[in-house]
Amino acid sequence: MAFLEKSNWVVLFVAVPTFLVYVAMVVPEVLSKPIADVSWVQPMFFTIVGFIVANVLGNVVAAASNPSEADKSDQRDKEIDQFGERVGNWLIIAGSITALVLAMTRADQFWIANAIFLGGLAGALLSSVTKIAAYHGPFQRW
Amino acid sequence: MVKPTLVTNSIRSLRFANGEMTQADLADRVGLTRQTIIAIEQGKYSPTLEIAFQIARVFRVQLDQAFQYPDVEEQP
């Protein structure tokens, strides 16, 4: 398995649990309190930091499992990476536009921040799934 | 979105005809990863023209001996 493919599996394995932890911390409060009283800043902050740290550690482990392949990438890797990023960016843009509309309608900060957060997370997941699919199926960009 | 390539190749037979060259050896000689050589051999990925020439050159054959493209019937 190419190192960049491993790297995308790491994103999947890290993003899903960290998101579920965030949901488990925030959703019970959303259901039981007014939105303005929900404490979401710390859970979101630590979820993002946790995601980054776990992602770095996962990549270190992936690199250590096969050091000779860790720094190798080629034209196909680059094309798959660009393709996956472009697909994932649609969800990031969708999250940003949603946040913009929420800000225009003076929605609570909670909804604005979560629109950006979820758009970014969903974009990262879609990007990784797209790249992994491209590694396993036919892939042609030109 | 992503369609399979029509380009076929004879890399597998050329490797065996050249002292059973491994995919890793070929990958090193043309600057690709072994996974990309596997994808090319399986017809899941078409290399750039430059890489295609490099692969043909490794086996000392013409480009169309390493890579083939089917004749397309003319539209009526």
Describe the protein in words.
The complex is a heterodimer of chains A (142) and B (76). With 142 residues, chain A is mostly helical. Chain A has four helices and no strands. Chain A starts with a helix and ends in a 6-residue tail after the last helix. Helix content of chain B is 49%, strand content 5%. Chain B has helices at residues 11-17, 23-30, 34-41, 49-58, 63-66, and strands spanning 8-9, 67-68. In chain B, helix 2 (23-30) packs across helix 3 (34-41). The longest helix of chain B is centred in the C-terminal third of the chain and has 10 residues, at 49-58. The A-B interface holds A 1-2, 5, 69, 72-77, 83, 134-135, 137-140, 142 and B 2-5, 31-33, 35-36, 39, 43-48, 51.
Q: State mean pLDDT of chain A (0 to 100 scale).
A: 91
The number of helical runs of chain A is: 4
> What integer value in Å does the Rg of chain A equal?
18 Å
Continuous helix count of chain B: 5
**Major sheet details of chain A:** none
How many β-strand runs of chain A? 0
How far apart lie the N and C ends of chain B? 27 Å
